[in-house]
Amino acid sequence: MSPLLSVRDLRVGFGHDPEVNQVVRGVSFDVAAGETLAIVGESGSGKSVTALSINRLVDFGGGRIVSGSVKLKRADNSILDLTAATEPQLTKVRGAEIGMIFQEPMTSLNPVLSIGTQIEESFRLHRGLTGKQARAAAKDALDRVRIPDALRRLKYYPNQLSGGMLQRVMIATALACNSRLLIADEPTTALDVTVQAQIMALLAELKRETGMSMIFITHDIGLVAGIADRVMVMQNGQAVEQGELNQILDHPQHPYTQHLLHAVPHFASGQAARTDGKRDSEASVDPALRVDGLTVRFPVTSGVFRRPAGAVHAVEGVDFDLMPGETLAIVGESGSGKSTTARAILGLTKSTRGTFSAVRQEASARQSQRPVQMVFQNPYASLNPRLSIASILAEPVIAAGGRLDVQTRDRMSMLIERVGLPSNSLDRYPHEFSGGQRQRLCIARALMLNPSVVVLDEAVSALDVSVQAKVLDLLVDLQREFNLAYLFISHDMAVVERIAHRIAVMYAGQIVEIGRAAAVLANPQHSYTQRLIAAVPTVSRRKEHFELDTRQVPSLVRQPGFEPAPADWTHFGADHKARTEAPPYSQTAG
Amino acid sequence: MRILRAIFGHTSGRIGGAIVLLYLVIALLGVMGFTPHDPLMQNRLDRLHSPTITYWMGTDLFGRDVASRLMRGVGQSFTVAFLSVAFASLAGTVLGLAAAWFGHRLDGIIMRLMDVLLAFPAILLALLVVAIVGPGTWTSVVAIGIVYTPIFTRVVRGPALSLKARDFVDAARTFGSSRTYILTRHLLLNLVAPLTVQITLALAWALLTEAGLSFLGLGTQPPASSLGLMLSDSRNLMETAPWLLVFPGLAIMVSILGFNLLGDALRDILDPRMRRSNP
How far apart are CA A205 and CA A195, in angstroms? Predict the structure, then answer.
């Protein structure tokens, strides 16, 4: 029996001369009916272009299929070569036979149409349904992707739904016409871990129900284990290895696959946690940073006269201390207040209440007025493109009242070398550096003033997995060398496990659990931490069944004058405590 | 250097740049007095002479050399245009940066004021200013400057708002960089490209507005010469001495064409979205 989709020696190029600028260089693979193929690779490996070539969407991005064939077995068992198909033929195939979901659900939906209208559109186009029939079909589609209260949600606009909900809507739209092949291009990359787990579970269930085939594109080899039957690893536009899931994960042949599997941080439930922590129970060292009852509230106003109607309690009574040379990781999903905590400590957001005190490192030649420095998430946005690297590194010194003298230049050269960049970098401009190198520059800039605390806000999240590992190693080295305290904010548990001594889990603006990294990861006590850790994809969890959970994060908007109940902590051994849960939460958490 | 080379490589940039350069030379010669004849000297014997070897563009009703007057006029028009655009870009940049940086009420006040100014047609607003202050060279500069300030304010405010939210500005705040440093190095430096384009295009409009004001007798005052004034003088002699009309008219048209071509080229070159395709 011939496969559903058969790709042979596919070559795709871009630009004026697609023959020369080939991005995909001779890729061949088959997808059988009901099978899931995962395409794994880093950015620029050609994995997305390969997928976009299958339904010829690549034509709209300026790409051209140079040679090769993409044969699709259609519903009537005829075979169509998509590389030679006409545009009207392709329009019939797209949607009806090949569905697609994209990375960014927020930008894939039209913001001025209700989601009901957009799903109905799909039914109208492909199945000719109209009016009541289309509406009923749309409701069924939302039911199928497990959106609770589907009939009411049809009238919602995209901005009223969360990212996870929108991705479900996208899946519902893609499945509207019972397409037999679904192409999912990094469908969960923009989502939180817990939401990611739900989407993965949903895709797995839908696949079982409908028997469709799927091409799943991802950079995270950990995700693959949960869903794929076969895996294809891509690098530089070529498929370096492909085969059965277990064979690839357990006996990788190609060095690049081995590198992906071993060099990259993988979550190991606390077994890979750092052990060089030196927090002694009664050490006489003062903490580098002490945060006490930090609270950030944003006022909400309503009506013509801007009457205060309440406040968003973004961060509520957060306290922790951070020892020199120690990493505290703050984990939690988006909207949990972890970034706001960091911004408040840096003074970028005004805190409503609470104190924080940072201690200067004692024997520093140039005493800094600002002992806390920060590295941002996006290395492309955090360096001014118009300034040379020397000016960028000099800025903190100048801001602190220093001058661009020999001493400053020496420190620049030392740090540039220390973060692993060529010594001639100082005269160059940010656009000449890659993402990983830029992040190294940001780290060097943060160290210019000899800080005692560095806040790393998702500092490696925007980087490719193998670059991520190298930057993490650099951070650990620098920490040992300069006795730095890190406040490491991340949503990625595998990365956190690599770098953290202690972990604080934030949920809805509060710390719900805090303690030694190994203890928190191996033995989570709060129900939210448990949920979070259960959702982390790992290589060892093959085809594991995730529980579908459609619970939404509670609203953080409170009435004026609302004060939360004081925290009640339950201790689990030395340096590990969790917030005692109120009964209603633990009941629904079951 | 890189930009000059890019302009030379761009078709409309090459043409526009050559025209603008030619005009700058003419304007400079005119202002410095290196003209074939004295632009103010009246020669009764050579009244309304058609173009000859001596008088390249003929003479006017008072026997003054049109070519010399044209050179002086280009100098005058360019001086007014450059000064008024300098005024507008300076005022607009300061107002735009202030509106973007301080936001809230100040933003509202500045931008609504600019909306009011924008609501008037350019020439009408310039007329209004001149009517209040009285005609003259400096009045034209201020009047035209005020007319084009709102455009610069808008051009600066939009990108400044988005730059203000960029991570490198946040990073600068965490170092404790001063407001002046952030505004100049992080905001203004990144606004150089759009401002350059806008200045070039505004020069074209300013030339036209200056010509308009002078034509209406509210800009440069006789006996000094300006392109608009020469056009105005030629109105009644259109049939007997068409050279009086043709040369100043062509001079205005070609200068505006030059600045527009150069502005378009600069926009292509400096726009980062364009840069990716031709590096």
Answer: 15
Predicted ipTM? 0.74
Closest by CA to B250, choosing from B57, B2, B8, is: B57
A369·B185 Cβ contact <8 A: no
* Cβ-defined contact of B170 to A348 (cutoff 8 Å): yes
**Token pair for B215:** 């034509």
From the list B171, B176, B185, the residue facing A374 with the nearest CB is B171
Chain A residue with CA closest to B177: the answer is A399
Which CATH topology does A265-277+284-359+484-590 take?
Rossmann fold (3.40.50)
CATH 3.40.50.300 domain residues, chain A: 5-262, 265-277+284-359+484-590, 362-451
Q: What confidence tier does A194 reach under pLDDT thresholds 50, 70, 90?
A: confident
Number of residues written out for chain A:
590
Q: What pLDDT score was predicted for residue A443?
A: 92
- Three-state secondary structure of A127-158: HCCCHHHHHHHHHHHHHHCCCCCHHHHCCCCH
- The DSSP line for A383-404 is S-TTS-HHHHHHHHHHHTT--S
What does residue A43 show for φ and ψ, rounded to 5 degrees? -65, 140
Does the beta-carbon distance from A373 to B189 stay under 8 Å? no
Homologous superfamily, domain A5-262: P-loop containing nucleotide triphosphate hydrolases (3.40.50.300)
Question: CB of A386 within 8 Å of any CB in chain B?
Answer: yes
If pLDDT is split at 50, 70 and 90, which confidence band does B149 have?
A: very high
Which residues numbered 159-178 in B keep a CB inside 8 Å of some CB on A? 166-168, 170-178
Tens of pLDDT, residue by residue over A461-503, are 888 877 888 899 999 999 999 888 999 998 888 888 888 999 9
- In three-state secondary structure terms, B60 is coil
CATH number reported for the structural domain that contains residue B91 in this entry: 1.10.3720.10
pLDDT in tens, A534-573: 888 777 666 556 565 555 556 677 777 777 777 788 888 7
Helix ranges restricted to H, A233-310:
245-250, 255-262
Q: How many CB atoms lie within 10 A of CB A160?
A: 12
In DSSP terms, A485 is beta-bridged to A453
Counted across chains A and B, CB pairs separated by less than 8 A come out at: 63
Optimal mutation site among B162, B166, B167, B191, interface A, most CBs of chain A within 10 A: B167
State which CATH number among 3.50.50.60, 3.40.50.720, 2.40.50.180, 3.40.50.300 fits the domain covering A362-451. 3.40.50.300
Give me the number of domains chain B comprises: 1
| A391 contact B CB<8A | yes
Residue in B closest to A370 by C-alpha: B175
Q: What CA–CA distance (Å, rounded) separates B21 from A329?
A: 61
Note whether B185 contacts A387, CB cutoff 8 Å: yes
CA dist., res. A248 & res. B201, Å (int): 61
- The residue of chain A nearest to residue B186, with distances taken between CA atoms, is A384
**Residue A27 is which amino acid?**
V
Contact list in A for residue B173 (CB cut-off 8 A) is 346-348
Measure A370 CA to nearest chain B CA, in Å: 7
Show the domain range for B21: 2-275
For B202-213, the pLDDT digits (tens) are 999 999 988 888
The amino acid occupying position A400 is A
Q: Cβ atoms within 10 A of the Cβ of A193, count?
A: 23
Cβ neighbours of A376 in B, within 8 Å = 167, 170-171
- What pLDDT score was predicted for residue A551? 58
Say yes or no for a CB contact (<8 Å) between B167 and A378: yes
- Cβ(B91)–Cβ(B150) under 8 Å? no
Contact B166 A398 (CB under 8 A): no
Contact A382 B167 (CB under 8 A): yes
What are the structure tokens assigned to A15, written together? 């630009």
